[in-house]
Amino acid sequence: MIKGVILDGDGTILDSMQIWDSFAQECLEDLGLPEDGLKPGELENASLKDAAKLFIERFGLQKTEEEMLAFFLAKLRSIYANEIRM
C-alpha cells in the first residue's frame, strides 16, 4: 500500500533543471541536424510530443511521433542515469 508520494518539480531531490538548457541542442547534434535549426528558447514551453512534431516537420525527418518520443525518452533516461546528481 502506497502511503505517500514525493514529487520533485523544482529540483528538490534531483537538480535536473539545467539539462533542459542544452537538451534540444544535444538532440540536434545526435541526429546530425543543423545546430542553428532551432531558435533559442523555441522549445521552452513545449511538451516532448510537441517537440517531436516540430523536429519531424522542421527537419523533414522520416520518423513517426512515437519514434521521436522514444528517441527523446532514451536520451533523457541516459541523462538522468548518468549526469543528474541527487
- Strand % is under 5%
Q: Radius of gyration from the CA trace?
A: 15 Å
Low-pLDDT residue intervals, each spanning 5 or more residues: none
The helix content, as a percent range, equals: 40-55%
TL;DR of this structure?
By secondary structure, the protein is mostly helical. It is built from 3 helices and no strands.
Secondary-structure map with pairings?
Elements: H1 19-30, H2 48-59, H3 65-82
Helix pairs in contact: 2-3
Question: How would you describe this structure to a colleague?
Answer:
The chain has 86 residues and is mainly α. 49% of the residues lie in helices and 0% in strands. The chain has helices at 19-30, 48-59, 65-82. It is globular. It starts with 18 loop residues before the first helix and ends with a helix.
What structural keywords apply?
mainly alpha, single chain, 86 residues, 3 helices
